[in-house]
Amino acid sequence: MLEKIREGAQGTIAKSILVLVILSFAFTGVSSYLGSSTEPAAATVNGEEIPVSALEQAYQNEKARMEQQLGEMFQTLAADDNYLRSIRQGVLERMIADKLLDQTAIELGLRISDEQIKQAIMEEPAFQTEGKFDNERYLAILRQLGYQTNSFRDMMRVDMTRRQLVNALIASEFVLPSEGKAVAELQGQTRDLRYLVVESQPFEAGVTVTDDEAKSFYEANPDQFINPEQVSLEYLTLSAKSLADDVTVTDEQAKAYYDEHMSQYKTPEKRLAAHILVNLGDDEAAAQAKAEAIYAKLQGGADFAELAKTDSEDTFSGELGGQLDWFEQGVMDPAFDEALFGLEKGQYSAVVKTDYGFHIIKLLDLQGGDQASFDEVKDRIFAQIKEKDALDKFYSLQQKLADTSYEVPDSLTDAAKATGLEVKTTGLFSREMPPVEISNPALIKAAFSEQVLLSGMNSDVIDLGDNNVAVVRVKEHKQAGTLPFDEVKAGIVARLTQDKANDAAKLQAQELLAKFKAGETLELTAKTKVARFDRELDPSIVNKGFQLAVGGADTINMASGYALVVLDKVNAAEGVEDALVQALSQRLNNQYTELAYRGVIDSLKAKAEISYAAE
To answer: Where are the transmembrane segments (predicted)?
Structure first.
């Protein structure tokens, strides 16, 4: 986990938060390891259940991560239900692997102490500023991720225990210096080649393709001449943004809105909290008695910060005199929140019970709560009113669109009249090549659905995102089928012509190879010191050159014909740098470690009793 945080620590706190959010999948499902549940199980591993809710959360996090990584491409991929099912199954398999590691760690008696967790947090660069631990940064990252310090430490304990086990099993992997150097020298090799390209194009003029040959190819390869299923659509689209553009707001309306909602334009009040915590433990009464005893010490004049260091069971905040973070109202546990926002600066509360334990809460400082003037927020209010009016109209029209398109399911005319929208149309298109104006995965999925295609009905209202919706119906539908021979004949003839020309080029290249091996002198193009990734030569020639032994020769198929390739010499790598050797060694080590990890998981799975819930 901390390695993943560290990867994002190179920059501002926002960058760290972004990386953590993307990688928060690593923490998902931890609740299933810390407690039991009566909800349905997605899988059972050696008698322990992985709840469906944990799988769903992990699945949604993984989808969000992939969407951020792939952008619009993910929306296209996500239109395929099989693709989403494969993602979900992959997530479940990773959760099963984690469960197996946790069970093995418990069986082996592996433990991570509070002190180890604290030390890991203190030393983590993502939580540091200028090389020193920064509590504000630490708490800000956790707050952005929606974690409390206790739950974060619980997740760290699980993750560090797993890593303790995995490291013990696979940390013995290593790469010899000679291995890294050998790979570097191999990659750095260059080769002296000679080659002769036999282009296929000159042979095309002498090639004839008969109608019978073309017809035979057509009949032997029907899958190559499938015309995809096509539809043309009628559709209505409704957009909140376009509605907002038509909304007019006066200064009087804006001022009235400001007067009515003045509290919205206050700087949010924040309070800096500290606490002394006694965990609930197995004996709640004893925990409460301990908290009351600490409270009595405070009443007797003891220093809050010193008591936090000596008596608080939140050891991390205790080291800081109990200090937690700046909180806005409504962020913390309700009981904690009520106590904190009922204090004056410098005051501490009586004992407060939450799900985490018994707290004594102190208000260290407060800030914010200032009222912004109308002029300062005027533009913001104009935008808010426009957005509100547009959304109100959008939701009203959306309901009309849904009702009318359902009540009159075989036409969009009535729905268009009810909403004031224009019925638009498309030409024929396939699922893979939709027009730009309707290129939305959800819309395309609906257009090719049974309801729309087979029943001929209006679709349901389709959510296109960002307060955009649509309804579609089929105007014309063409089933997939084989294209007639006459339509594809010209293409078949061109292809067969190319194939015959290639065969002729291949035959000539093989004749040249035979002559070369027989000792005849050929006019070959020489190229010295060809690198493995040479961009000046055709990749086919380069690849063949790196497959041959010195003095060897062979032919190779190219996009434009065939080539004869001869290898004259292998040149050793020049000046292999230590940095390259180290980088390649690290890459090899990572590969070995990954293989070892997969081996560990496969071994654990082979010995485990794993059952999957029926879909």
So the answer is: 12-34
